[in-house]
Amino acid sequence: RFKSISWGEVDSSNMLVMKDINVVKALKKAKAEGTGALDHVSKDNLIEKLQDWAQDEVLFEYCKHPNIMPYLKDIIGSAGAKAMHTMMINKPGTLQENMGQRSSTLGYTCTNDGWGR
């Protein structure tokens, strides 16, 4: 489903589709220089995050998966859960070789004390 959304084959007007700015900049630079260095990058590698996809009937099936529900009940103590915010993060490994670290992991780590470099 992610690929269908990335390629514009499915209506995504009810969700936020965020591109990875570092990939976009690298593609623009490669195009301007005429190197074609990143010609292999597909549209689904441009997308870094999908947010607010709870209204997408296919993606929301993953939230309702029977293997997920017991953990959800353990966390919130009830079967009456509602989706408030949904996010999918795309991390294509093949781009890391060509571009270094992805923007979402650029030198930041998350600990119990919060975010730091």
Automatic annotation (TrEMBL):
Coiled coil: none
Organism lineage: Eukaryota, Ichthyosporea, Ichthyophonida, Sphaeroforma
PANTHER family given in the database record: PHYTANOYL-COA ALPHA-HYDROXYLASE, PHYTANOYL-COA DIOXYGENASE, PEROXISOMAL
GO biological process: fatty acid alpha-oxidation
Family: Belongs to the PhyH family.
Protein known as: Uncharacterized protein
GO molecular function, one term: phytanoyl-CoA dioxygenase activity
